[in-house]
DNA sequence: CAACAGCGTTCAGTATTTACAACACTTCGA
DNA sequence: TCGAAGTGTTGTAAATACTGAACGCTGTTG
C-alpha cells in the first residue's frame, strides 16, 4: 500500500489543500507534501496528527490494505466444517479455506453441563448468535440471561462473557463473531 | 492508543523475545525496545517491518482503537428481531439496538419460489451462513450450488451472488455478513 | 498589466529515529 | 560455581523525518 498516494486521495476527496490540512493537523505544509510524494515515511505520531486533521482513524486509513486475493471453496457440506471444539463444547467453523476470514461463523453444541469456563472470556470485536434448540445461560458483564430456542444476542466481546448449559438437554447455537480470531 | 504497550502485548502473546522479533522483522532489538517503551514514535515503514515479523497487518494492529461505547440490549426474544424482509424473503435482524453494528446477523426464510432477483447482488465485505431446513440454490460468480440442510457457505460479497428457492418447501437460513450494511 | 492570494515543491538546518555495540541481569547446564 | 546463552536496556553515531523560509506557478481583482 502506498501511503502517500492514499493520503493524497483522501485529502482531495475532502476538498482540502496541503496547507489547509497542515493547519488543521498542526504540522507544516511541507510535511504533507513530502508524505504525499513518499519522500519520507512519516512517524506514527505525525501520521496520527495528520489524520486527526481530516479526521480519520489509523484503521480507516490502512483499511485499504484489505485487498483480498482469489477464489477458494464457497460451499461446505456439514462434514467439511472444521472442528475447533473446546472441552465439552462442540464448535464447527464455516469457511476454513477462506484466506483472511472476517467472520467466525460457528455451529455450536453445548451438551448438558457444558461451560466456557469460570474465568470470563474477553477479546476484541463483537459477537452475535441465535439459539436453535434447548436452553442456554449467557452471562455478559454483571448480567445473566436465559436463552430459549429462537432467542438471540448481540454484544461487544470486550465485555467479559460466559456461556453455560446447566439444563438437561443439549443446546444448539449458531454464532458469528468479528474479527475472526481463529 | 498506546503503540508501545500494544506491540509488547502482541509480541508476548506470540511468545517472542525482542531479539527474536527483531530478527524476523529485519530491525535491531534496540528498535523494538524503544518502540515498546514509547521512547520513540516509529516511522510507518519501520512499524510495517516490525509487524511483518509477527506477521500482522496495520489494520489489525490499530484495530484496538475500535473501542466501542456503552451498553445496550444484549438478548432479543424471537419477536424482538427487526424485520427487514425484502419481497418474498423474510429476514430478521439480530441486534437492532446496537449502536455501530459490525455484523449483520439474519434469520432468513425463503418460501418456495423466493428469489433475491435476477440482477446479481454485489457489495463490499464477506458473507457466510448455514442452511437449517429445506434446500436452496446459491449462485456465486459463474458457479451454482445446491445447498441442503446442514450445508454452509462463505464468500466475498464483491462476487455477484443470488439466492433462490426453486423447490417446494421453505428454506431456513442463518446468515452473517460484515460490514453490516443496514 | 500589476498586485495579490492561493497552490504544491524544495532546500538548509534542526529534531527525531535507527543501527551497532556495549551493558547488567537471569537461567541453565557442566 | 562458573561459563554460555538468553533476556531487556542504553549510549553514540549515522540515517531519516520535520520545520521554517524560500521558490515558481496559477487564477483573481483592481
TrEMBL record, chains A, B:
Q: Which CDD domains match?
A: cupin_XRE_C (cd02209), HTH_XRE (cd00093)
Domain HTH cro/C1-type stretches:
7-61
InterPro entries (alphabetical): Cro/C1-type_HTH (IPR001387), Cupin_2 (IPR013096), Lambda_DNA-bd_dom_sf (IPR010982), RmlC-like_jellyroll (IPR014710), RmlC_Cupin_sf (IPR011051), TransReg_Diox_bact_type (IPR050807)
Keyword Lyase tagged = no
* Record keyword DNA-binding present: yes
Q: Which organism is it from?
A: Pseudomonas fontis
Concerning SMART domains, the annotation shows: HTH_XRE
Which spans are transmembrane here?
none
Gene3D superfamilies reported for this sequence: Jelly Rolls, lambda repressor-like DNA-binding domains
Name of protein: Cupin domain-containing protein
Q: Name the keywords, alphabetized.
A: DNA-binding
